Every structure is written in C-alpha cells, then in structure tokens.
Amino acid sequence: MATGQQDVEELVARKYRHGFVTDIESDTVPPGLDESVIRLISLKKKEPDFLLQWRLKAYEHWLTMPKPNWAHVNIAPIDYQAISYYSAPKKKTDGPKSLDEVDPKLLETYDKLGIPLHERARLAGVAVDAVFDSVSVATTFKKKLNEAGVIFCPFSEAVQDHPELLEQYLGSVVPTGDNFFAALNSAVFTDGSFVYVPKGVRCPMELSTYFRINAANTGQFERTLIIADEGSHVSYLEGCTAPMRDENQLHAAVVELVALDDAEIKYSTVQNWYPGDENGVGGIYNFVTKRGDCRGRNAKISWTQVETGSAITWKYPSCILRGDNSVGEFYSVALTNHYQQADTGTKMVHIGRNTKSTIVSKGISAGRGQNAYRGLVKIMPSAEGARNHTQCDSLLMGSDCGAHTFPYMEIANPGAVVEHEATTSKISEDQLFYCRQRGISEEDAVNMIVNGFCKEVFRELPMEFAVEAQNLLSVSLEGAVG
Amino acid sequence: MLSINKLCARAGGRDILKGLDLEVGSGEVHAIMGPNGSGKSTLAGVLAGRPDLEVTGGSVTYRGHDLLEMDPEERAREGVFLAFQYPVEIPGVNNVYLLKAALNAIRKHRGEAELDAFEFLARIKDKTKLMQMDDSFLNRGVNEGFSGGEKKRNEVLQMAVLEPALAVLDETDSGLDIDALKVVADGVNSLRSPDRSMIVVTHYQRLLDYIVPDFVHVLSGGKIVRSGGKELALELEARGYDWLRDGADAA
Prior knowledge:
Mean pLDDT of chain B: 91
Helix content of chain A: 10-25%
Low-confidence stretches of chain A: 1-14
Number of helices of chain B: 10
Mean pLDDT of chain A: 84
Radius of gyration of chain B: 18 Å
Distance between the termini of chain B: 28 Å
Low-confidence stretches of chain B: 247-251
Distance between the termini of chain A: 12 Å
Order of helices and strands of chain B: EEEHEEHEEHHHEHEHEHEEHH
Number of strands of chain A: 23
Largest interface: A-B, 23 and 34 residues
Number of helices of chain A: 11
Shape of chain A: globular
Oligomer: heterodimer
Strand order of the largest sheet of chain B: 6-9-10-3-11-12
Structural class of chain B: alpha/beta
Structural class of chain A: alpha/beta
Helix content of chain B: 25-40%
Shape of chain B: globular
C-alpha cells in the first residue's frame, strides 16, 4: 500500500515505464506526403522498380479513398501532411553488419526496454529483430537461423536479398487497396520484418520483432511478411512501445501471413504503445491491418494478442481459411483504461472444406475506456463442414467505461456449425471483499480476478511472454479501482 | 480477545444491530443463534469489515486494536477469518493460487518468509486430507461450479491453512447434508485451540451437536437477548425463538 509521498510518486512513475526518449541524431525527412516522398523512401532503400511502382499504385489508390468512419471510436482528424514518413537513426556505414557497429545508444535503449540485443544476454531461444522508428537496427541469432534455412531479416534487407519471394507474396494477402490505412502503409512503409520458413522446417527458436517509435511527429509504417512453406512451423512475437508525448502519433502497420500445406504460424502480439495520459492527451493511434492466409491444406494460423497500450487500437487480425481442413484461431485480451479506445476483433473467412475457427475475445474496460469487439464469421458456399466457435467476454470496472460487441455472421452453407457465446460481467464487490477478507490487498485482488478472466488467452502465449503480459496488465490497471 | 460494546450497524438503509454487547475470551467458542433477520450475518460481516455495512455506533476491540478502524485485509492479516455463508465464485482464479496468495500476504505481514509453491503444497497436504479434498479440487477456479458442501469444505480448508486467531463461521451448516456436516465439523473441531477463538453463527442447534460451544447467545432484534451455556441451545431447539423475542421486546 502506498503510504508515503515517495511511494505514491513511485506508483505514478511506474505507470508507463517505456516513456523515455532516446537522444540520437536522426535522418528525418520533412513532414508531408506526395509522390516525391515515396520516391525518396524507395531510393533510400535502393528498391527495385517493381516495388516503387507498387508503392505508387497504392498511393494513387489511397488518394481516392475516403477515411473510414465505421469503427466505434472517436478520432480527432489526422493531418497526413504533418507527419514525417521517414526517420532513421544516423549511422556511419551503410548498415550494421554486426552488433558491434550498432550505435551504443540504441543498444542501451533496448536494454532499458528489457530487450537486450547482445546475444549472450538474450532470452535463450528467442531471435529478435529490433525496429527503431523507420528502420531495423539489429537482428539477433541470424547465423543459427541460417543453418536451419530460416530467413529472418529486416524487410529492407529482404528487398535486396530475396526480391523474388517479395514479388511473389507481397500484397497477396492484404492488397494495396484493401483499406485506407493499408493503402497508406503500402505507399510509405519503411521497414519491418521478413520471415521465410522453408519446407518441412520447424523453426528452432521463437522469432520476435520489437517495434519502437522514438522520433516526434513521425508515423511508423512497418510491414511484416511471414511465409511458412509446406509442413513448416514458426512462432513469432511482436512487442511495441513508444515515448510519452502529448501529440498523437500514427502507427499504421500491415502484417501478412501465408501458410502453405500443413504449415503452422503462431503470431503473438504484446502491444504496449504509449496510451496517452490519464486525461486522454497524447498516445499512439494503432491502426493495423493483420491478415493470415491458410493457403494450403491443413494449414493453421493462430493469432494471440494482448492489447494494453495505444490511445486508439483499431485492428482485426483475420484468417482466410482457403485450404481444406485449415484452422484459424484468434485469442485476444484488450484492455482500455482512462480515455483509451479499442475497436478490435477478427474476421474468419471459411472457404475450404472442413475449415475450423475459434475466437476467444476478452475485453476489459476501466476508467472511461471504451472497448468494442467486432468480428465477422463468413462461411462461403464452398465451406462444407465448416465450424466456428466464438466466445466474447467483457469485464467492466467502474461505471464510466463501456463494452460493446458487434458480431457479424454471414453463413452461405447450411451445413456449417457456428456458435457464439457472449458475457458481460463486473468485478463484483463480493469478489473483492472475499479476497480482501483473506488478507489480499485490493490491488492484488483486482489483478488476480482480471488475470483469471484472461487465463484462456494467456495460456496461448509463448511462456517467456505470458508473465510479461500479466505484469503489463497489472501496470495498465493501476489506479483503476479504489 | 474480542470485546464488542453497544455495537450499532445499518445495512440497506435499515438499522440491524442495535447496541450489541459480546465478550469473547481466548480459546472460547461462542455460538450466536437467532431467528432469520435478527442480525447474525450482519454481525459476522461487521467483524470482517464488509464495505456495504455501515457502523453507526459502539466499538469493537480486538487484541487491543480498534477493529473498526482496520481495512478488511488488515483484519485478515491480524488473524480475523470469516467463513462465508455464500462463498463467491471467482472464475479462472485457481483455488490453490488464491490460498497461497492469502497465506503469503499474512506471512509477509507477520514478517515471515513467503512460501514458494512446493513449500506451500507440502504444508497444505494434511489439511486437504482432513477436509477430504483431492488435488483436482485445488486446481479448479475458486468456488467455480462447487457444490454447496464443497464450498463450505473449502472455507474450512482456508481457515485451517490461514490459522486465524478469531474465526467467525457464518451459517457454515446451511445447505449441508449430514455427512458433509460431519466433515466440516471435524475440520473445525481440529482447529480448536487455547489461542483461537470462534464465533459460530447458526440458525439450527444441529451444528452445535458437532461443534460444542462454551457459550450460546441468542440474538434478536439486533441485540443479545439471552446468554447461557450449551444447554441453552437445546432449550431453543425445544421451544423455538418466540418466547425470547417477546422477552426482548419487554426488556
């Protein structure tokens, strides 16, 4: 319990631990967006012509698109000309060949974030790609992955080394004109991660990307592409943080997953972008398009997300179940406190026969937070024997927050089995009193009850990160009761 | 151990306790009996610090402390335990996890080292056996889908593990069949000790055949209207409460 002034200050300081700024010289293009900026980004990245043309096509399309306004969120108008679309830490050489060439200030930043990039200090069995503003600054365990034939590298490196894979797969799951923010991303994306797991290979370690926004007035537009070839298996995790700033910053990413015959991709997200302060000032706009394509038979794609950060979260990690017997899963915990808003969920599109999907969504609203689940289960006429089970639970803390559920179902095959369960509950006074009567503090009791509520999702996370997710939840909930 | 003086309390806008006095010494077992609505559960709730009850007068001194000034968790850490009449379900929270968190909170308060999972499991082994609970029971959600009897057994298990100085049992016999009642009563009896006092709140004398009290008090209209030894319970069984209720009004 916080008794002294010092304790209170400590508690407040703990609220967002990742809010510091790294003082590093950056190469940042002036704010604004037009064709020349896109050409400049492409030039800086030494991209082949096909990619430049792809970007320009996306940009043309974006200019014609209206801003979407269907989500259950309030967004102040975004001035796309006030954003800088490229910011990279200045470096002496063309790119770090090894960790020794990475600026020590950057290494220090990731150390502070708990993501040490030196391999000797790394979590055993997890390879990391670190993306700082617009560029990837380091990738660990490359050699070990190479031996297994796994490609795990910054997106811009894949552009140079594996253009044929990019040409084949880029935009094949999320086309350039898919939606407003995906189109913008396609035009201006700067970096991200690229993964290719060859036939029959089980990736020997967890892969992870750590995204960090540092510079002010920039957007982060990264693009991730993961291809799991026939019979392969990969587990990938992303984490995100940003400094505390009073302005809203835009993060508009695109993630594409492709799973071929018998392949499995497990994609986990622990999203802790700066959520804004307790009055709703500042914070990241997290507008992300994530989609996986189970392109082959018996393919499986599983999304797990723990969303505690961002002023506004707007994302629907989805699965296209094209291959027969393919499986899609979505496990989500979304927490909104203070003035945070989240509109999140998934789309499961059943095309192949005997396709199966599972959706487990846990929304937690506290303070004045607004939390919406939005999901689509679409069963195409071809999806003989398709099954879906959706479970959507909301937990409310206090009386000023909101929970909303928008489940859509489009069922065009009469043989499909689609189940939907939804509950809304409050942490009851009785539950809190019961725990307190056993000697447990109110804060610990709330954490315990919330973690119990999220258990089904947390157990889907890789072990190393399940604990982190629990801690994150308790930090994000500080001050939510009492 | 516990000294209650002219205690008055309100619940849901109604006065329930109206000047209740009670003295409980170390190692004593006191039964509180009385008709429905007489204030038995309110008394139990006030002692534990239930937030929706409002104390409007009187005082409660527990081991030299002003009990009413303490937060519920502080009272628990100082050794006050309430076995709930209706134990609440907490879905997804492991039964054994809650118990370990509770024990460690209390140990920390006492300046003792917290127990890890292995030490904890070793410590509770005998106690789960005593309450005839198997391991699967420990790994379920707190009271989640428990039968009435299982919930009450779980309450007594918690009491056995937390080793309180003052245990308040609120209608621990309600909803139990005779076999379950015996298990619960055996558990409670095994915890009787010269350092531990108990207040057993019950509507029926039946429980007192198994948990034999040192003192019996009859609560009616928010006050203790009669006190006596264990034979008072038998008299109540034979005569009901009405003769006392009238007497209370006259007094």
